[in-house]
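Aim 2 progress update. The chain analyzed this quarter is reproduced below.
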Amino acid sequence: MLFGKTFPWSRRGGDLFTLTTYIGVTIVLFGAVLLAVVAWTGWTSNTNAVERERTLVENALDQSIIRVLSEQKSVAWWDDAVINVAQGRVNTEWADVQLGMYLSETYGHVEVYVLDSEDRSVYAWVDGENAGPAAFARRERDFAPLLREVRTGSREYPRTRDQAFVASQAAYRDLLGARVARWGGHILSVDGKPAVVTAITIVPNLEFDLVQGTPYMLVSVVPIDQTFMSTIGRSLLMQDLTFTETPAHDSAHNVDVFRADDGSTVGYLSWTPRRPGRGLLTVILPLVGLGVFAVGLLAQTMLRRLKRASAELEAREALAQHEAKHDQLSGLPNRRHFVEVLQDSLDSLLQRRHGERVAVAYIDVDRFKDINDTLGHQAGDALIVAVAERLQSVLGPGDFIARFGGDEFAVMRRAKGEADGAELADSLHSAFEQSFDVQGQNVRMTASIGLCMAPDHGMSPAELMRNADIALYQGKNQGRDRAMMFCAEMAAELEERREVELELERAIEAGGLEVHYQPVISCKNGQVTGVEALLRWNHPVKGAVSPAVFVPIAEETGLMPALGALVLERAFEDSKRWPGVQVAINLSPVQFRHVELIELLQYLVVKCGVEPSRFVLEVTEGVLLEASDRNRETIDALRELGFRVALDDFGTGYSSLSYLSEFRFDKIKIDRGFVTGIQERKRALTIIQSVVTLGRGLGMDIVAEGVETEAEATVMRLVGVTELQGYFFSPARPAEEMQGFIDALAANSEVVGRVSAPSIKRIDARS
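Predicted structure tokens:
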């Protein structure tokens, strides 16, 4: 019978139904698991974010303890403090100015006490005035555990907050002795409110013999109020971090009990936590659920499959168009797309002409090549992505940003005048205020910005970009990390700079550069113990070109490795003229970070046949801003080759005594800024005395640069500096003149401390 037959297509339909059913069930199960994973991931992300922020707040409070201890140290570890308050009789007038007023007005210490060797109050400054020693009676019981902790070293509280301060003071504590250099700090309840309470012994910083018996102690109280917590919040980018005495009832905020170190509750901390999982829970989760439902419902129909195929084709086409106009690394529009958008804006500007302008900014990341040379190209790529994200975050919705390649970006903004251009520059600069996390390292970067305006500086994309580029390089030429608006004079200056670049390259190839040497004089016997190699360029037409002009150009254009190799080889060869005299050679940051520095030095030592121990390689503080493993390994490798290493220009702005413990140096060169007029600058003299005491205690020689007067030379010798260098003795000389100067100085029987300016001039004349 007709209806009793089973047709083959009905069997295929049943099989297809079964197959699609299985697929549907599988999709539903997989979707349920996916929804659970997304939900769990979002919840976990939010929880981890809160915990991380809680840890950041605790760490910031620890840093506050360390900051207050450091503020106390500035006046407590001082010979004058021991003499005026810790030798039996308190000089109240001195204590009011140097302790009470200084700590309260400078750092906000509301209470300052000085306790004698038996922890009895001998001085008190409370709420901006001298309150008399009896004022400490109300704090004696509450502060007793902290005082015992400082005196005995035993921990009275379960939390330790001064670990970083302990590590940073290790060298000084070793010099003075652990029995007297002691400190401690905690968060305590003071009058029912939280406060940072710290105590530190009053000890000398130079004349250690001043310590007699148990030292006196300086105690400070800094209240923790809303202003205090707001400062911490801004440093952690937690803008609404709030301290209250009662808990806030708000589901949008995280509320934590704030406990003092003795366990007592002193208030509550609340802030709006970052919720990285919010997008997963509010957007992704519903979308995934909808997708699972849609796929399960429409899996059996051919029509939906065709639609999906069509959608995929459209997506690929859109992706191809996107990739043609966007940078693959950063995801930003590329040069081609930027030019198109800029041209559209210029066309629109021509049609309107109502005082409107178009601002174009060209951004170049300063010293980006150093990142590639030192950390590798992967780190450079990561930095580019981070910079792109940071720039986008500071721009407005109407701004258009693109990446041109390398470390170059461009931004276009509709503007009304130059003020809008300045505002754009400020926004772009703000993107570089915080350091960048590159492969686990905090890297501080700056950017140079060139700006121009249409129609003032051109009406074509090519003209505007060329002028913005000229303004950019003008900013780089003036020291980087700045924004410059284009003007006609810049084009001429750029041409001159490019001319210097080309002539410098030719001078390097033709041997047109010279190395001169400035003598280094021993304070012990007044003789030349070393010379410093200094590069000089005497242009056949322009005359003497300052290193301050051509060295930055060499660093920017990639000529620095060749220039540095030239100085090293010349200095190695010239050193044979003066056996027994050390030769100091500056290593530029580019040289120091170059991956082939060690191999170059090994090659030149063999080629020139010199002994590395005769050479001092000088490294500036700017190179060592980060105590990275690579910096430490490079210095260790230089020392293993036999070279001596000096810390150059100490005191130029990055100075930190931690360099002396982080890195192994043979010499410290004190910058001329501390030496000039030293006989009239007591504060600078105190700093130099501290550096000399610490440096020589660590086995380092101390060299004072820029000595220009007999008075400066005398003061430097008296404070313990081992070597002197400067125009008072001699300017830099050609290699062939140096031996005559050495012989002339050797014939002079006077030591450096008694050498007068006229005698030096006579030595110059004879040499």
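Residues 195 and 223 are 4 Å apart (CA to CA). Residues 1-13, 749-767 have pLDDT under 50 and may be disordered. These observations will guide the mutagenesis experiments scheduled for the next reporting period.
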